[in-house]
Amino acid sequence: IGNTVLHILVLQPNKTFACHMYSLILSYDRNKEGPGSLELIPNNEGLTPFKLAGVEGNTVMFQYLMQKRKQNLWSFGPLTTVLYDITEIDSWAEDQSFLELIVSTKKREARQILDLTPVKELVSLKWNMYGRPYFCFLALFYILYMVCFTMCCVYRPLKPRTGNRTSSRDNTVYVQKMLQESYVAYEDELRLVGELITVIGAVVILVIEIPDILRVGAAKYFGQTILGGPFHIIVITYACMILVTMVMRLTSTAGEVVPMSFALVLGWCNVMYFARGFQMLGPFTIMIQKMIFGDLMRFCWLMAVVILGFASAFYIIFQTENPENLGQFYNYPMSLFTTFELFLTIIDGPANYDVDLPFMYSVVYFAFAIIATLLMLNLLIAMMGDTHWRVAHEQDELWRAQVVATTVMLERKLPRCLWPRSGICGREFGLGDRWYLRIEDRVDPNKHKMMRYTEAFKAQDRDNYDKGSEKLESNGDTLCKKELSALSLSRSTSRTSSHRGWEILRRNT
After folding, report:
1. Domain spans of the chain, in order of start
2. What is the mean pLDDT of residues 494-503?
3. CATH code for 289-412?
């Protein structure tokens, strides 16, 4: 019952009352230490009161609980060394990490905890010591891997076509080799080494990604942009396309260019995932994800309706015409593709002035230009501009969340020998088996005094301004100029003391 009450207090809107009641209930706890403590009993979701405060974004309760956990090591003048208990915060030995819970929640208030002590210092320590070097090495390794795969695709086994063309529009001159013909020369053996590296890399990607999907859940794993959800979809699809290409090569099935081209696009697009390691580029990946899976997905439904309607109309109009004179609409798939290009203004309106065009083509194309180019494209630009404005206001916060998610991911994937535990064991200071993070803080004794001086000078300036305003309003119109000059003189003389105070304050700072 006591543990349930603690969880309820974390969710209370009255933060001060909740903190006092929290202390009152814990004062009656018989097992203040050890696994029987009320603070260490999880709820049905596996969250202790401390983790629940982080997930809900209750910064007041989080700071209150951290103040209870800290130990003052020593103080010397303005310098103070504090040990913060990071047992539940550190993701090194936690199945359900506190840091991972914060970045995976949809509440923006929870991400503000990443800027509080000691979470900010712990993340900075992990990222600078291990996260950034490993992440940069992983990015370099992935780029080299993609270069290898690209070279294998560029020099894939092809041979000249021997069959006769069945249509004047058939432009194929090379076809795919059979499996027995693909690995004969020395260059083929070099390509085989690159293809084996590509296949092994695809298998490793699936082996790494699938356990996380089973542990977290597909909806949460792919749905969180901060966790890199869309990029996980891209890299898993890329690995599947590689395996499909391998099967088609081994069975000598024609058409391997389809999965191979998809794999090239997806693989190189996944390079943008590594931009999250840099503060200048990290927020832009968030913007791209939100624009693609937010604005663009909604816009594509409207665009599909417009393209289907006008492409059908264009095809019907030119169905009775000679396709050699205007071939952009000679069949229905080509009509769809041409209308899509017209929608994005990639090409101009197709026309052949040597022949008579149908009258309805001009009418339909006029309506299409007004709806697609002037209305819908400007609507898309406005939607993306609004998304950019919203993300730009929280880009620092989003980048910190990206760093935390990347750090937790690397910490789970790498062996323990490559990523030792951060912090200091409490046994060194007689504090048990808990782990602590030592933080040095400098307290300026003149800071509060300076703030009092600042408030006093501001209040004096406000009083002088209010008195001058009242005096100006009480005067008549005939004496307006005289009183205005007198007011400026009185304000200049009355501000002398406050001006002197501001100068002293500037010199002291």
Report:
1. 5-115+423-445, 125-277, 289-412
2. 57
3. 1.10.287
Query: First vs last Cα of the chain: how many Å apart?
Result: 53
Least confident among 157-161, 274-278, 446-450: 446-450
Omega before 42 within 30 of 0, i.e. cis: no
Give the pTM. 0.70
Burial (CB count within 10 angstroms: exposed 0-12, middle 13-18, buried 19+), residue 480: exposed
- DSSP letter string, 205-254: HHHHHHHHHHHH-HHHHHH-TTTTHHHHHHHHHHHHHHHHHHHHHHTT-S
Inter-residue contact 10 to 52 (CB < 8 Å): yes
Query: Nearest 10 degrees: CA dihedral of 360, 361, 365, 368?
Result: 60
Residue 118: cis peptide before it, omega within 30 degrees of 0: yes
Q: How far apart are CA 274 and CA 138, in angstroms?
A: 9
Q: 72 has which bridge partners?
A: 82
Element (H, E) at 83: strand 79-85
Tokens of 321: 């015409």
Give the residue with greater pLDDT, 215 vs 486. Answer: 215
Q: Which residues contact 1 (CB under 8 A, 6 or more apart)?
A: none
Bridge-based pairing state of the strands 79-85 and 158-160: unpaired
Arithmetic mean of pLDDT, 237-264:
90
Q: What average pLDDT score do residues 278-295 get?
A: 75
Contact 234, 105 (CB under 8 A): no
Read off the tokens for 88: 């539940």
Confidence of residue 487 (pLDDT cuts 50, 70, 90): very low
Beta strands 424-425 and 71-76: pairing type? unpaired
52-63 b/e with 16+ CB inside 10 Å = b? bbbbbbbbebbb
Query: Three-state secondary structure along 34-53?
Result: CCCCHHHCCCCCCCCHHHHH
Residues in the chain: 509
Read off the amino acid at residue 138. L
CA 415 to chain centre: 26
Burial pattern 356-374, b for ≥16 Cβ within 10 A else e, equals ebeeebeebbeebeeebee
Q: Which residues are within 8 A (CB) of 387 and not within 5 positions of it... i.e. 6 or more apart?
A: 287, 290, 291, 294, 295
406 near 103, Cβ under 8 Å?
no
Q: What is the amino acid identity at position 471?
A: K
